[in-house]
């Protein structure tokens, strides 16, 4: 792994954490900004995003999703369905957490 990739991965980890912290603090706009930056870095370096980050960010509006706060989570047919307040929802296989 090149040093550049290692640095990018570390930045992704840190930005993802910042997004979560901002969302928890109720700063939705700042959380979205972090989410976008995280995605941009991952794209630029063709890195995959941490799974929890992928699950708990909205692909439509870039919100960092906190179940019970700005997202609803339910299960159906062996899938987890996460619905963002913007109305967008994503389905994941139940076991693939
Ligand atoms: Zn959304």
Description of the structure:
GO terms for molecular function: ribonuclease P activity; zinc ion binding. 45% of the residues lie in helices and 18% in strands. The chain is α+β, with helices and mostly antiparallel strands and 97 residues long. It has one domain. Helix 1 packs antiparallel against helix 2 (28-44). It starts with a helix and ends with a strand. The structure holds zinc ion (ZN). Zinc ion is lined by residues 58, 60-61, 63, 84, 86, 88.
For the biggest sheet, the summary is: 3 strands, antiparallel
- The structural class is alpha+beta
The total strand number stands at 3
What's the multimeric state? single chain
Keywords summarizing the entry:
single chain; about 100 residues; alpha+beta; binds zinc ion
Give the topology.
Elements: H1 3-24, H2 28-44, H3 51-55, E1 71-76, E2 79-84, E3 89-93
Antiparallel strand pairs: 1-2, 2-3
This protein binds zinc ion.
Zinc ion is lined by residues 58, 60-61, 63, 84, 86, 88.
Function: Part of ribonuclease P, a protein complex that generates mature tRNA molecules by cleaving their 5'-ends.
GO molecular function: ribonuclease P activity; zinc ion binding
Subunit structure: Consists of a catalytic RNA component and at least 4-5 protein subunits.
């Amino acid at each position: 792994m090149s040093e550049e990739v290692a640095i990018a991965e570390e930045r992704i980890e840190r930005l993802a954490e910042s997004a979560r912290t901002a969302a928890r603090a109720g700063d939705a706009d700042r959380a979205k900004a972090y989410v976008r930056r995280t995605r941009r870095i991952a794209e630029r370096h063709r890195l995959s995003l941490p799974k929890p980050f992928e699950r708990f960010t909205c692909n439509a509006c870039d919100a960092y999703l906190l179940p019970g706060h700005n997202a609803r989570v339910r299960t159906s047919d062996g899938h987890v369905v996460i619905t963002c307040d913007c109305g967008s929802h994503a389905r994941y296989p139940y076991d693939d957490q």
